[in-house]
Amino acid sequence: MPEVIVIEPRKAQQTAKKRVCAYARVSTERESQVDSYEFQINYYREKIMSNPDWTLVDIYSDQGITGTSAQKRPGFQQMIKDCQAGEIDTILVKSVSRFARNTVEGLFYIRELKKLNVNVVFEKENIDTGHVNSELWLSFYNSMAEEETHNISRHIRWGYHKRMETGAFITACAPYGFTLINKTLVVEEAERPVVMWIYDRFLNGMTCEEIAFTLNYFAVPKGKNGGNWTADGIRYILKNEKYIGDALLPKKISTDVLPYKRVKNNGQQNQYYIENAQEAIIAKETQEKAKRLLQKPEATVKTDKQKRLLSGYVFCECGTKMRYKTSGEKVYWVCQKHAKDRNICVVKGMEEQSIHQACTAMYHKLKVNYTKVLVPALQQLELLYSNEEPYNKSAEKDKETMKIMKQIQVLNQLQSKGRYESAVFMQKIRELTEQLKLIKDESVLQQQKNNKMLQSVRSLIKTIEQGPEHMTILDEDIFKKIVEKIVIREDRTIIFYLSAGFRFEEKVEK
User: Fold this and answer.
1) Interval 190-216: pLDDT, tens
2) Going edge to edge, which strands form the sheet with 350-351?
3) Is 377 found in the same domain as 424?
4) Domain total for the chain?
5) Is residue 404 assigned to a domain?
6) What is the DSSP string of 91-123?
7) C-beta separation of 252 from 164 below 8 A
């Protein structure tokens, strides 16, 4: 008889308590919102602590902070870090809109939390991300929350523009020389003389750089935010209409896509010019003179730069664009940082003639050796790109495509049986269609990049082939076709970055 060994059942282990937290957020600090904020915190604390199977980790919260971007919510970010540290099993949230108003961002964090085995429970929508089909519903509700954000934003912007039209808009911040008192711009008397001095010095020949240097040298405070005076800051004061008592609104506008960003209003939306909006510090005639004077040097510099072949091509090793300066009959290219402070950048200037000679030397080397350097490189690229997509990679993309097509087929079958609401079904179909498009676009984009590289190398070879055997004076047309950037190093080595990604070096002796 075979011997039978009895294996007794294991004793049931005591189930560990689920580690639960909650997230609460309100977007403003109005009294009604504060009450809601405090209610959410108290509600979740009591709910979690009253459940014998749960243990409270923390109540994470953000008050008076928008939900359009998770990066701007410190409480939310701390919660995500604690999830990554393995301290949380479940997150309770009042609604999808409290979690995120951005569909893409909301789904991103849900998927990241799923990877960490953390599920999120949205009470209002009765959604638990631990369920298989929760993402479809989340996508739907996130879209609704995002549209709600767009509607709120549109109403706010409409109100702003109406107040601008009537001249009743109140600026949110005061430029140097002003302060906000009872929502009104008032001249800051301690700063008025500084503004007047800036205009006086500029109209009497000082540059913006010299004015900024003088203010920093004598430690003149730069308003409430502090920091150093800069040439750009001086130009802002010389051009800002607020100093003559007027206001131009809006100078910046918000983008229409979440997360919203502030960009310069270059004619995308109407602007309103309001005269006598506040007390003036400078006469209008004085500012007009300053503006005309600001334009003159810019026009002169532009004309001079057009005369110099190397303008816009020469950079210092430190990354700064180099400018030319004349000394007698010689022209030098110098680093702007080195010109201001030699301790910041040690790269000295270089004669323009030396750079020209290095360019012609580089050209002659290419002319003599292009069949040994450029042509083999082109052949290698053509071979590489022709074999760039091996069978296994192509098969992998085909497999991924077929998988998505099968998902679409299953969805169509389920929808025909009434298993999905139309809105949810259409959202999922759009997502799958977008995935198919991305697979196709990726291949097309890579092919375009490859073709662009090949075309660039062929163009470089053609330019060298058709160029002269000898070049005593740097040819402008050839130079612009083959050179993209020139870098000057401290040891007087010139690095030429050519089209198609080639790089050559020439050492210039002193």
Assistant:
1) 899 999 999 988 888 778 887 887 787
2) 322-327, 330-335, 350-351
3) yes
4) 3
5) yes
6) EEES-HHHH-S-HHHHHHHHHHHHHTT-EEEET
7) no
